[in-house]
Design brief:
Low-confidence stretches: none
Pfam families: Prok-JAB
Largest sheet: 7 strands, mixed, barrel
Number of helices: 3
Domain MPN: 3-128
Strand order of the largest sheet: 1-3-2-4-5-6-7
CATH topology: Cytidine Deaminase, domain 2
Number of strands: 7
Helix content: 10-25%
Radius of gyration: 14 Å
Keywords: Carboxypeptidase, Hydrolase, Metal-binding, Metalloprotease, Protease, Zinc
Number of domains: 1
Mean pLDDT: 96
Distance between the termini: 20 Å
Strand content: 35-45%
CATH class: Alpha Beta
CATH architecture: 3-Layer(aba) Sandwich
GO molecular function: carboxypeptidase activity; metalloexopeptidase activity; zinc ion binding
Protein name: CysO-cysteine peptidase
Length: 139
């Protein structure tokens, strides 16, 4: 699986997550999927209603609005993202436990090393097995 993310979308995610420090930030990704390639077409910046540095919960009203907007524009929700302010960009046990949809991408942006953000994409199956997926940042 390969995920294509425009540089502008990456910067939007980075800015949102940096602004949310010291807490985790989160959002949804809309786009298209064909064969083993996913293209992100829109990033939805959502509120972490938990306001926590160790976990997140997306605002349900914002989630619904994002879903409706994506559908209205002919896209589907293809993934979500959240930040790890103080840990590496890999799914925590809680991330795996809460990964209910094995068909979407889970992106994690680590901000633990100032000036060196690390974004990674993962697939998490029903058995909670984690697979790293390639991300290509495009212009």
């Amino acid at each position: 699986m390969k995920l294509y993310l425009k540089k502008s979308h990456y910067n939007t995610i980075l800015t949102h997550c940096t602004a949310g420090l010291p807490n985790e930030s989160c959002g949804l990704l809309a786009g298209t999927e064909e064969d083993e390639e996913i293209t992100v077409t829109k990033v939805y910046l959502l509120t972490n209603v938990d306001a926590s540095r160790e976990h997140f919960s997306m605002d349900p009203k914002e989630q619904l609005a994002a879903l409706k907007d994506a559908r209205a524009n002919g896209y589907k929700i293809i993934g979500n993202f959240h930040s790890h302010p103080e840990s590496p960009s890999r799914p925590s046990e809680e991330d795996k436990r809460l990964a209910f949809d094995p068909t979407i991408e889970y992106l994690i942006l680590s901000l633990m090393e100032e000036g060196n953000p690390v974004l990674k994409a993962f697939g998490i199956d029903k058995e909670k097995n984690v697979t790293i997926h390639e991300i290509e940042i495009t212009e």
